[in-house]
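Following up on my earlier message about MTE. Here are the inputs again, as you asked, copied directly from the submission form:
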Amino acid sequence: MLRRTNYDGIPSSEITSEQVYRERRELMKLGAAAALLGTSPLMAALGYEKAKSPLELTSFDQITTYNNFYEYSTDKESPAKLAKNLKTRPWTLHVGGEVQKTQTLDIDTLIKKIPLEERIYRFRCVEGWAMVVPWVGFSLSSLLKQAGLTSKSKYVEFETLFDPAQFPAQRQTFGNIPFPYREGLRIDEAMHPLTLLAVGLYGKELLPQNGAPIRLVVPWKYGFKSIKSIVKITLSEHQTRSTWNQIAPNEYGFYANVNPAVDHPRWSQARERVLGKFFKQDTLAFNGYGADVAHLYKNMDLKKFY
Ligand code: MTE
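Thanks, got it. Here's what our run produced:
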């Protein structure tokens, strides 16, 4: 049932025995952290494949207290405080549109059916900050295969829960982005094995501020593509909507691939600051996942399709 993956963008030949040693130590620390945090009964019962990675993980604390979640607030600290009571059960995920079988899935039934694995990914926000997160989840492709693709399944649209009673910013008429938040992928991007539906991090169920109970993670794209608290996935023959692209198309492209060579109109994308670190580092093309994904864009002008 368990599958092994090492999708951290670093060829295994570069992993030295010293690194292997450090990884083991990291894993032990991770285990201790999970014990401390109290791995959720659901995940403990299911078990999941632990990942190995030479990347240094961002702390649980940083990942869960510095968030972008505009349904709560436009600042980074509020989501962790305001999201505490998000009702994540019962929760259904609707998969429809251009598929063979439209499905309405109960989140717990889904999680029990699909084997979970840990994926340690770099994550790069369009604003210039970055982190390394040990997600727990499964490839989006396994869900889409269940629904069955057709010749018309060319794009995928994702939608966040719309519930003004729970999300304060959805009650505001001015001063925020249009809701529900939506994001989209081309079908080959959606079917790529790196594209993850995450239900946990650090071995624990996702906290609401990180997009509980289920969110998208596309590690080679800017973070705004990684939509949170998803209730609806719709396959379509035509290019689907993307909230940030609709608000400011000159600033946020539909593709949003991490690209140090294409600046945001208001700031450079060449460097990034990892949460918890003082010095900035160079941003990598496709966030370091070029070997896995660059072929998806081989005949495209990435300056035009940013
Ligand atoms: N999804 C929803 N529904 N609402 C949001 O405001 N923000 C996006 C993305 N997904 C956002 C969202 C942005 S801009 C980023 S950088 C990431 O979530 C942040 O994820 P994190 O808070 O787990 O780090």
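One observation from looking it over: The domain at 3-296 is CATH 3.90.420.10 (Sulfite Oxidase; Chain A, domain 2). Hope that helps, and feel free to reply on this thread.
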